[in-house]
Amino acid sequence: MSIRQETKISPIQWLLPIFFGIIGGVIFWAINKDTNPDTARTGLILGIGLSAVSIALYALMALTMMLA
Protein backbone atom coordinates (compact mmCIF):
# COMPACT_ATOMS: atom_id res chain seq x y z
CA MET A 1 0.00 0.00 0.00
CA SER A 2 1.49 3.32 -1.02
CA ILE A 3 0.78 6.64 0.61
CA ARG A 4 0.34 9.53 -1.78
CA GLN A 5 1.83 12.87 -0.92
CA GLU A 6 -0.76 15.51 -1.78
CA THR A 7 0.76 18.71 -3.08
CA LYS A 8 -0.69 22.16 -2.71
CA ILE A 9 -2.48 23.39 -5.82
CA SER A 10 -1.82 26.94 -6.91
CA PRO A 11 -4.89 29.20 -7.06
CA ILE A 12 -3.84 30.08 -10.60
CA GLN A 13 -4.42 26.46 -11.65
CA TRP A 14 -8.09 26.83 -10.67
CA LEU A 15 -8.43 29.47 -13.39
CA LEU A 16 -7.99 26.78 -16.06
CA PRO A 17 -11.43 25.15 -15.68
CA ILE A 18 -13.08 28.49 -14.86
CA PHE A 19 -11.94 30.34 -17.98
CA PHE A 20 -11.38 27.48 -20.44
CA GLY A 21 -14.27 25.17 -19.53
CA ILE A 22 -13.97 21.53 -20.54
CA ILE A 23 -10.51 21.91 -22.07
CA GLY A 24 -9.24 23.69 -18.94
CA GLY A 25 -10.83 21.01 -16.75
CA VAL A 26 -9.09 18.25 -18.68
CA ILE A 27 -5.75 20.07 -18.43
CA PHE A 28 -6.30 20.64 -14.69
CA TRP A 29 -7.16 16.96 -14.25
CA ALA A 30 -4.08 15.83 -16.22
CA ILE A 31 -1.78 18.02 -14.15
CA ASN A 32 -3.15 16.90 -10.77
CA LYS A 33 -4.45 13.34 -11.29
CA ASP A 34 -1.42 11.61 -9.78
CA THR A 35 -0.83 13.86 -6.78
CA ASN A 36 -4.38 15.00 -5.92
CA PRO A 37 -6.93 12.68 -7.55
CA ASP A 38 -9.96 14.03 -5.68
CA THR A 39 -9.06 17.64 -6.41
CA ALA A 40 -8.31 16.75 -10.03
CA ARG A 41 -11.77 15.24 -10.39
CA THR A 42 -13.31 18.36 -8.80
CA GLY A 43 -11.54 20.60 -11.33
CA LEU A 44 -12.73 18.43 -14.21
CA ILE A 45 -16.32 18.54 -12.95
CA LEU A 46 -16.03 22.31 -12.50
CA GLY A 47 -14.92 22.75 -16.12
CA ILE A 48 -17.69 20.53 -17.47
CA GLY A 49 -20.32 22.16 -15.26
CA LEU A 50 -19.39 25.71 -16.16
CA SER A 51 -19.36 24.82 -19.84
CA ALA A 52 -22.81 23.28 -19.57
CA VAL A 53 -24.17 26.35 -17.79
CA SER A 54 -22.73 28.71 -20.38
CA ILE A 55 -24.12 26.61 -23.27
CA ALA A 56 -27.54 26.59 -21.61
CA LEU A 57 -27.45 30.37 -21.14
CA TYR A 58 -26.45 30.97 -24.76
CA ALA A 59 -29.23 28.65 -25.94
CA LEU A 60 -31.74 30.48 -23.75
CA MET A 61 -30.60 33.86 -25.09
CA ALA A 62 -30.84 32.61 -28.67
CA LEU A 63 -34.31 31.22 -28.05
CA THR A 64 -35.57 34.45 -26.52
CA MET A 65 -34.13 36.46 -29.40
CA MET A 66 -35.84 34.19 -31.93
CA LEU A 67 -39.20 34.50 -30.17
CA ALA A 68 -39.00 38.28 -29.76
| Contiguous runs where pLDDT drops below 50 for at least 5 residues | none
- Intertermini distance: 62 Å
- Name the overall outline: rod-shaped
The Cα radius of gyration reads 16 Å
Strand portion: under 5%
Structural key phrases:
single chain; 68 residues; mainly alpha; 2 helices; rod-shaped
Task: Offer a concise description of the structure.
The protein has one domain.
Question: How would you explain this protein's 3D organization?
Answer:
It is a single chain. The protein is mainly α and 68 residues long. It has one domain. It contains two helices and no strands. The relative contact order is 0.16. The mean pLDDT is 91.
SSE topology sketch:
Blueprint: H1 15-32, H2 37-67
Helix pairs in contact: 1-2
